[in-house]
Amino acid sequence: LAVDFKTNQLVPKSADQVPEGILRQLGAYAAALKKIFPEHKIETAVLWTKTRSLMTVPNEIVIASLQRACPLLDDRDLRP
């Protein structure tokens, strides 16, 4: 589980409302961790410090965001 701590003043109510930049960052974490630990299941989450809440972000959302930023990436390199 890769957790990114965020201090945003506006905390989204659901994972599909997380800002694109944060989603891409989580996607990059997931892709890198998959390369390092190919046999492990990789998950991502954001810890919102303002509300002290942990929000898991589905792999489909972070992968789609990273693909929008880097459309030439091979889909197999992104699947956690």
Short description:
The chain has 80 residues and is α+β, with helices and mostly antiparallel strands. Helices cover 35% and strands 19% of the residues. A hairpin with a 4-residue loop joins strand 2 and strand 3.
**pLDDT averaged over residues:** 91
* Overall 3D shape: globular
Percent of residues in beta strands?
15-25%
Residues in helices, as a percent range: 25-40%
Flag low-confidence runs: none
Q: Based on DSSP secondary structure assignment, what is the total number of beta strands? A: 3
Encode the helix/strand succession as letters.
EHEEH
| Structural class category | alpha+beta
Q: Kindly report the spatial arrangement of strands forming the biggest sheet.
A: 1-2-3
Main traits of this protein?
alpha+beta, three-stranded mixed β-sheet, 80 residues, globular, 2 helices
Question: In words, what does this structure look like?
Answer:
- There is one protein chain.
- The protein has helices at residues 20-36, 59-69; strands at residues 2-6, 44-48, 53-57.
- With 80 residues, it is of the alpha+beta class.
- Strands 1-2-3 form a 3-stranded mixed sheet.
- Helix 1 packs across helix 2.
- The longest helix has 17 residues, at 20-36.
- It is globular and about 35 Å long.
- The relative contact order is 0.26.
- The model has no long low-confidence stretch (mean pLDDT 91).
